[in-house]
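Tutorial sheet, problem 5. The two components below are modelled jointly, 736 residues in total.
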Amino acid sequence: MKTPHRTLQVDLADRSYPIYIGPGLIDDSGLYRPHIAGSRVMIVTNETVAPLYLARVQAALQGLRLGEVILPDGEQYKDLATWNRIFDALLAQRFGRDCTLIALGGGVIGDMSGFAAACYQRGVPFIQVPTTLLAQVDSSVGGKTGINHPAGKNMIGAFHQPRAVIADTRTLDTLPDRELAAGLAEVVKYGLIRDPAFFDWLEANAGALLARDPAALAEAIERSCRNKAEVVAADELEAGQRALLNLGHTFGHAIEAARGYGDWLHGEAVGAGMVMAADLSRRLGWIDSDTLARIRRVIAGFGLPVDPPPDIPAERWLELMAVDKKVQDGTLRLVLLRGIGDALVTAEFGTDDLVATLAPTTAPAPAP
Amino acid sequence: MKTPHRTLQVDLADRSYPIYIGPGLIDDSGLYRPHIAGSRVMIVTNETVAPLYLARVQAALQGLRLGEVILPDGEQYKDLATWNRIFDALLAQRFGRDCTLIALGGGVIGDMSGFAAACYQRGVPFIQVPTTLLAQVDSSVGGKTGINHPAGKNMIGAFHQPRAVIADTRTLDTLPDRELAAGLAEVVKYGLIRDPAFFDWLEANAGALLARDPAALAEAIERSCRNKAEVVAADELEAGQRALLNLGHTFGHAIEAARGYGDWLHGEAVGAGMVMAADLSRRLGWIDSDTLARIRRVIAGFGLPVDPPPDIPAERWLELMAVDKKVQDGTLRLVLLRGIGDALVTAEFGTDDLVATLAPTTAPAPAP
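Model answer (structure tokens):
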């Protein structure tokens, strides 16, 4: 089969890989085959995605020796015990080092499967088949894999690049509205950190995206992946500019940890987190009130929360943010904005301004 | 302080690192400092080693912000739950990505700490301070890290090179005889797979090594590390010749799994496993009976078992060996010998010969 699609190459020397974007790609066996090492494939998915897409991936891989492991669905299962179930399945079915893993699902499945691939027998290949917008625009690009620890998100993990990403835009038809919005949070992020023209485009095309217009979605996915791929190619191991991809994430991770993983979606927490980052930037005089209001309006327009939960005390915020991976020598660093499309990592902010951002005086929007 | 020592450089491009070998090095703060990133250091050790050496390492690192995690001692604790205790400690004490781990102990501590360093916040540096002969000659060179799964040894892990290895030969004074012998098994292995002159030297110096003559031990450690470093430099990710380092290990891992980890020491199982590999090589006509007898005599001379436990049925052997990482497309491959100093990885053996090796007709030596 040859399904029409866009292809984007992520340029990482001998770890380079293609991202295929288009409708119906999940059934295209020709996209998988060149990226499968050996004859055995373990499909890792979850209870929500399996009934929708597992049989179709199995059909596309006909003739190979397949295994499957179906995990519970939700960020709260992105833990050591659930991760270990992938190894249980691989070992029970005697998968050797010459197998390939396929991550079929959203970001949680991608992160856990990729991390299992990184560690199984010290490393086997894997292919990402992301079925949520969040995973298509973000989690499947860049090779970050990992699981959560009760004390912090993504604290245990590895850099492990997939052999290919197969992003079937038609899988987004089955995505709940709330998850579509969560994915759009990461899309907006690329505009905010490095692509002001894309931010303008998103502002103009919000209606089409929310209506799931296929062309608008494909454009948003490709431009997001292209932005992320450029950042990752320049800084694979996050020594520098890659940290900018964390805009809104330090605040967002704290929200997720405070609420318990799985209450707010990751993208929802990032949506509110980006507005908080903009709010702090405005307090520092780096962006003006109009810019803050515009950012807030675009994010709210995608159906995302723009205020943190009102019940987290400032001390708890600071405690949760202290475990962020950008902390150096005990000093908190944040991704802040000098304008739309212009972000930086900095520790140059006062605690007073930070605390004011954590406890806003504006009335909080209703929680999702 | 400047303690006299030998230095061996492991050549791995930007992951190159030095191995320092000599008496009293554990106290030499000058050896640690250049390899510590940031100001925070987590020392990972176990209940046996901590009372002997923890305070000395802490003294050598005076002025840095130190943490410690003391794990139970034994191969049976090289598991997911114990590994997670390292993350518990790192997160409870708010260690950031700019910390350094120190693995103070034997191979189990080195493997678990190195794997924790590989995965903590997707990778932090670590330094190996091996306190057993096995760890000094083997586990601390080459970057293999990992933990066991109930279905197989070292099935979950990563390649993660240390920043430095500090091998204090005086720590071997406190090593039980049985553990010294277990380390000598890996020393003999280097002679068998690629260094016939070293095998001759070991045969001639067995008495001095068993008497813990410092010069003989230093020589054996340096030559073992040099052999391993050469193999690893040529094949960091085990695509080819590095697999030769597994001589005796497929049999040995099966023995350990069958007996339950921690009953036979790893080196003891490898000792018997190497004789089994030699036995199968003799059955295939690749080495003669005299060579087999010589190998058996040298290994027995170091106080190691030369026969497997008598109570493992052949089917169980085959089942346990089927999860070996050298299995490709379901076919078992073994490291066998064409002579002393001449090893190969091969699937060219018949099941009959293999089964004859698994159930030897010679009277087994007493178990350790």
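Marking note: The domain at 6-174 of chain A is CATH 3.40.50.1970 (Rossmann fold). Full credit if you identified this.
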